[in-house]
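Preliminary data (for renewal application), protoporphyrin IX containing FE complex.
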Amino acid sequence: MSDDALFAAVMDPANRADPYPLYARLRERPVSRQRDGSYVVSTHAAIRSLLFDPRLSSEDLPPPRRPRTGNPLKDLILNPIKNRISATHRPFIFRDPPDHDRLRSLVMREFSIARVQALRPRIAQEVDALIDACRGRGEVCLVSDLSYPLPVTVICELLGVPRADEPRFQAWATQLATAVEPDARHDDATRRQIVGAFDEIAAYMGDLIREKRRRPTDDMLSGLAAPGPGGRKQMSDFDLLSTAVLLLVAGHETTVNLITNAMLTLLRHPEELERLRADPERAPRLIEEVLRYEPPVHFRTRKALGTITVAGETIPKGAPVILLFAAANRDPSRFQAPDRFDPDRGDIEHFGFGGGLHYCVGAPLARIEAEIALVALSRRLVAPRLAVDPPPYRPGASLRGPEELRIGIDGTA
Ligand code: HEM
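Predicted structure:
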C-alpha cells in the first residue's frame, strides 16, 4: 500500500479491530500527505507542537445545510435562518479564540471538581443498579448493559435534565455522535439525520433553558443560564444550547468507549483484572494506561490557517490536518515498549484527552465514571471471560470502540 493511501485504510472498517500496524507505517513520516490533500500527523513530538500552534484552526466543519423539504416557507426562510444560526453558534470544540476561550471558561467555572465529585454516589448507585439487572445471566453485553446507558444518565444529572426525559437523550446522543466523524460529514443521509436530531434536541433544550432561567436548580445548566455581572446573560441562548448539546455528545460515546476498551483490555490481561479486584486503588493508573493504549478518541481534525512547517514537512495554507492521537500514544520515540499494556509505566503523557487549548473539559468526570465502573465490574462479575475476541466495532474510526462486548460470566456477586 502506498504511503498516501494509509489514512484511507485507517478509515476502512475492515481495519477497525487493529489499526495499530497502519499507525506504525504512518509514523515513518511524522507528517504524511494523503491522496485527498489532507496531512496526517502521527508522532508525539509533531502533534505536541501543533496542539499549541495558533495557525491550526478547529473551525473546520462544512457549513450546515438543512435538506430541502418542498415547503417554500421552510426552504426559503426558516431553514436558511436556522443554518445561519447553527453556523455562527457552533459548539466551542469547533471554534477558535477568542470565542472558544470565552465559552470554555464559562463552562469550566461550572464544571468544578466539587460538582464532579458530588456525582460519585449517584454514579456508584447507577453502576450497581445496572449490574444488579444482569443477575441470573450467563452472559452480559458490557456495551448495552452498562457502558452505553451510564454516561447519558450522568450527563443528564450534571446538566439538570429531568430523569423522565433521559431515554430521549440516549437516542439523541447516538445520532449526534456521528457528527464528529469526518466521513459522516460528507454523507448526505447521515447529515440529514444529524440535523434532524439536532433540531429535536434544540427544541427540547430551548424549553429546558427557559425553565432553568425561571426556576434555577443546583445543576450546570442553571449555572450557565444564570445572569452574569450587571444582570446580563453570560452566554446567548444559542451558545448555551450548542454548549449543552456539546457536553452530551462529547461526553457520551467517548466514555462508553473508555469503559468498554478498559474492560476489553483487562479481559485480555486477566492478571491485571485480578490485581484490580484485589486492590481498587490501581484503577486510576489502569485507566491512564487504557487512555494511552486503547484511547476512545483516535484522531481529531483541524485546518491550517497559514503555511506550517513541522518535522521537516510543509503543510500548505487551507489544508485539512489530522492529529492522529492514537498513533502518537504508541510512538516508540516517546514511550518504551509502546505496544505493551503496562499500567505501571511511570511516563504517561498520552493524548487520550487531546491537549492544548481544546484539552477535554470532561476528563475528571470521565476518569471517575470509568474508575467506579471498573472497580465494580472487577468485584461483581464472577469469572468473566471474553465470549468473542476481537469484538465487532462500530463504524467510526475517530470515536473507535466495540459495538458490543459479550462477556461470559458465572453470575454476579
Ligand atoms: C473517556 C472519555 C472522554 C474522552 C476520551 C474525551 C476526549 C476528548 C478529546 C480527545 C478532546 C479534544 C478535542 C480536540 O482537540 O479537538 C475532548 C474535548 C472535549 N471534551 Fe472530552 N472526552 C471524554 C469525556 C468527556 C466528557 C464526560 C465530557 C463532558 C461531559 C467531555 C467534554 C468535552 C468538551 C466540551 C471538549 C471540547 C473542549 C474544547 O474545545 O475546549 N468529554 N475530549
